[in-house]
């Protein structure tokens, strides 16, 4: 590692693309070491009643900082701090990146352990549903590509980043005999299956973590349709959050092109054609246009 002695870690949590280690804690202040794999995102966000100093010092690598005013680079030796955080800041690692995060209010167990557990649940349920572990990460990468191309605000990017990964966590509450049924669901079974989007929002609400609660709003809407014929609330058009509209397209595309136990996936070209065919009915037409314009980049994911 070169910068931090691993023996000094009090506790370490590993998540996909991210290592988070508590180095020191005392008098309400925590020093937390982060190691990000390339193209991993990390964020700071304002929270009601939270007046902490939040400070990062970059040890190695580079972070691209996105704010509502544009982008800037944070390089090794640079620091960034706010007290308190009043805006949303999204950092994206350019190559493997290490930094120290210092906060004057304890947060380690809250934001690392619970998030890790929810991510593990999400991966587990996708595997039970017949997908591989990569499904969650493909949905996340495609969604972020689309969201950044659309120029979403930083808070929207943060919501999308979490919701895209956790979109189907509500399937945890769906009986396995329904979730894994190889044939067509009965009308009664389908009504139960449709509840997974609301279950997902409820699971994230139960964490009491503000950024997961925020993501839960998107999770609940990701099966709404542009024409109002989706579920659970029959929202239509601009009533649907843009983050949910993005995940709707990306999730459908990935489902179409993924081999399942009961069928082979279609080609990407056929899936692009199907997305185009459903433009303006299932999917937001403006987002479809951007999605199709990104075909070359999508083929690389």
Describe the structure.
The longest helix is centred in the middle third of the chain and has 21 residues, at 108-128. α2 (134-149) runs antiparallel to α3 (154-166), α2 (134-149) crosses α8 and α3 runs parallel beside α8. Strands 1, 2, 3, 4, 5, 6, 7 and 8 form an eight-stranded antiparallel β-sheet that branches. The protein has 301 residues and is α+β, with helices and mostly antiparallel strands. The protein has two domains: 6-106, Sandwich (Jelly Rolls); 112-299, Orthogonal Bundle (Hypothetical protein af1432). The chain has helices spanning 108-128, 134-149, 154-166, 176-179, 187-193, 196-206, 210-221, 242-257, 268-277, 285-293, 295-299, and strands at 11-15, 18-26, 29-36, 41-44, 54-67, 70-75, 79-82, 89-103. Residues 110-301 form the HD-GYP domain. This is HD-GYP domain-containing protein. Pfam families: HD_5 (PF13487).
């Amino acid at each position: 590692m070169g910068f931090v002695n691993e023996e000094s870690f009090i506790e370490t949590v590993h998540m996909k693309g991210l290592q988070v280690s508590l180095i020191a804690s005392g008098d309400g202040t925590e020093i937390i070491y982060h190691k990000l794999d390339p193209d991993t995102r990390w964020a700071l966000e304002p929270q009601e009643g939270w007046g902490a100093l939040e400070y990062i010092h970059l040890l190695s690598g580079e972070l691209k900082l996105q704010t509502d005013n544009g982008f800037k680079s944070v390089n090794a030796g640079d620091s960034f701090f706010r007290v308190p955080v009043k805006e949303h800041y999204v950092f994206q690692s350019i190559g493997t990146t290490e930094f120290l995060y210092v906060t004057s209010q304890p947060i380690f167990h809250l934001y690392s352990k619970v998030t890790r557990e929810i991510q593990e649940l999400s991966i587990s349920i996708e595997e039970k549903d017949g997908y591989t572990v990569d499904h969650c990460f493909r949905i996340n990468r495609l969604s972020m590509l689309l969201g950044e191309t659309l120029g979403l605000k930083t808070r929207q990017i943060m919501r999308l980043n979490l919701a895209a990964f956790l979109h189907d966590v509500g399937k945890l509450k769906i009986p396995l005999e329904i979730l894994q049924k190889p044939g067509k669901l009965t009308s009664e079974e389908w009504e139960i299956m449709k509840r997974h989007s609301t279950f997902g929002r409820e699971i994230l609400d139960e964490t009491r973590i503000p950024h997961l609660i925020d993501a839960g709003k998107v999770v609940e809407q990701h099966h709404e349709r542009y024409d109002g014929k989706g579920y659970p609330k029959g929202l239509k058009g601009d009533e649907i959050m843009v983050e949910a509209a993005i995940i709707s397209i990306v999730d459908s595309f990935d489902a179409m092109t993924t081999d399942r136990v009961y069928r082979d996936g279609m080609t990407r070209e056929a899936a692009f054609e199907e997305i185009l065919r459903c433009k303006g009915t299932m999917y937001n037409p403006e987002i479809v246009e951007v999605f199709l314009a990104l075909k070359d980049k999508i083929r690389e994911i």
